[in-house]
Every structure is written in C-alpha cells, then in structure tokens.
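call fold(seq) -> tokens
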Amino acid sequence: MEPLRIDIVSDVVCPWCYIGKRRLEAALASPEAAGLPPVQISWHPFQLNPDLPAEGIDRKAYLEEKFGGPERAAEIYERVRAAGRTAGLELNIDGITRQPNTLAAHTLIAFAQQDGGDGSAIKERLLQAYFIQNRFIGDLDELAAIAREAGLDAEAARRFIDDPARRSAVAQADQEARQMGINGVPFFIFNRKLAVSGAQEPATLVGAMRQAVEQA
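ret:
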C-alpha cells in the first residue's frame, strides 16, 4: 500500500500550527483513521514574520506593532490558549520575551529531513521550546542544543544552519509556498491532491485524508 503523503506548511512561532499538529496526531490515532495507509509527513517552511532581524525583536515591541498593544494581544491569545487546552497543550504565551526570526529554525527542520529523514521530532522540540519553555529559538547555540535533545548531531546541525546556501534554499521554499497562494498556516496537503487550511478538528482531517486516499 502506498503511503499517505502529508505535506504541512507551518511556522514554529504559530500557536495554531502547534494546535494543528496535535489535532493531526489525534486524527491519525482515532478509530476513524483505521484502514488508512501509513503516513509520510513532510514539514515545509512558512515565516509569519520574514522581515524580522536575525536577532529577533523585543516581544512587547512585536505585540505593539502586530496587534496595537498587549491588551488586544491578551484578548486574542486567551482564545488561543483555550483552543490549545482542547488539544492537550498549556501554551505559556505570556512567558515569551523575544520574538525570533524563524529562518534558522526552519533550516534546522530541513537538516532533520535531508535524505528522507523525519522532521516531526525536531518540529515538536522547536514548538515546545518556544511555546512551553520560552527559549529563544532564533539563537544558533539554542538550536544546536535543541538538535542534540532530539538525538541529532548538534555540530552537523550547526554547520548546516550556518550555511548561507542552506538558509537561502529554505527562504526560497517559503516564497514558493506564498506563490502557491498559501497565506495562512497551518496548511495541510494530502497526497498532493487535497488541501485543508487551518487547525481543523481531527474529524475534518480524517475526512480529508480518506478523500485523498480514495482519489489516489
């Protein structure tokens, strides 16, 4: 049986992307998913804030620019936290002090996925580092440590991330996603045939997967 290919376009500083990852996992573990082929997941970069400097910016300044201030951001993020709880996540959004540029983090995912590798473990580590542990995932030393925690070669990961050509390839992939018309994440593509936008409920994702398999 051919595997069910799942391409996921997302960012590592997007809370809905973390929620969407959990909902996909719940969908795949549900009884309704019984009989589906084994899945092959690939993660693709999308930077919510591609113009941020490499060193990131102060989180308060970021909220001022994006939402008009912390009060409005608090309203929005309370809804996000509530949605996270339904997916088993306690998002520590208030603990974030610095907003990173995520190009380097996406390049770490590309490192994990080279030669057909699985990027899901490092994706989880990055989301957890940012939203639960409030680590600054724009820092090369931090990313090397996260790579080590995920069982990867930290020094090889560091060299890969630090390679301008590797970062350029990731930036190009980001641009290609936008050229496809993707302007919001998470964005799921099943078997390159059927797309679902947003952190949809598990039942919706299972339905999309079944439809994609039937169309194969």
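The beta strands are 4-10, 39-45, 57-58, 98-99, 187-190, 194-197.
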